[in-house]
Amino acid sequence: MKTHTNTMVIAGLHTAVMHEYECRQYDIIGPHDGTPKFVAVFILMHYYDGWQRGIAVAYNTNFHFVPTIVERMKILYGESEGFRDKIHRILNFIEDYGEKSMDAVA
Predict the structure, then answer these.
(1) Which of 45, 47, 38, 46 is nearest to 17 (CA)?
(2) Cα–Cα distance between 30 and 104 in angstroms, integer?
(3) Cα 43 to Cα 70: distance, rounded to the nearest angstrom
(4) CA distance 21 to 104
(5) Rounded CA separation 75/54 (Å)
(6) pLDDT tens across 57-105, in order?
(7) Contacts of 93 (CB under 8 A, 6+ apart)
(8) Are 18 and 53 in contact (CB under 8 A)?
(9) Exposed (0-12), middle (13-18) or buried (19+): which is 3, by Cβ within 10 Å?
(10) pTM assigned to the model
(11) How many Å from the N-terminal Cα to the C-terminal Cα in the chain?
């Protein structure tokens, strides 16, 4: 994953979340809270643990709320097999998206 750029990860993440949750990008980065936004924050904190403030700004949420989002998503990840499957599909999509993007550049 280290060879993928931040733009590739974020573009792949948004595309995958929009597909999995049948939503628009506005639902992910807009001012209203919801599962697509929480999933995006959860996954980005997985990749970029130290970027709490930057992720909060990018996703229109308070940076103090980011750890709460992550903890709630961890609980849901542990308790729901369906949610776990969605997260794995999103992560796989990001990996594939990054590889295809890197192939296009090369």
Answers:
(1) 38
(2) 30
(3) 9
(4) 27
(5) 24
(6) 999 999 899 999 999 999 999 999 999 999 999 999 988 886 665 555 5
(7) 12, 15, 16, 19
(8) no
(9) exposed
(10) 0.84
(11) 17
How do residues 3-18 score in pLDDT, each as one tens digit? Answer: 456 777 888 999 999 9
* Six-digit token string for 94: 């990001």
**What tokens were used for 76?**
């849901």
3-class state of residue 87 by DSSP:
helix
Cα separation, 81 vs 57, in Å, equals 30
Contact 91, 66 (CB under 8 A): no
Q: Give the whole-angstrom CA distance, residue 85 versus residue 30.
A: 25
Please tell me what DSSP assigns to residue 64.
Answer: T
Report helix angle 35-47 to 81-105, nearest 10. Answer: 60
| Tokens (6 digits) for 15 | 């595309």
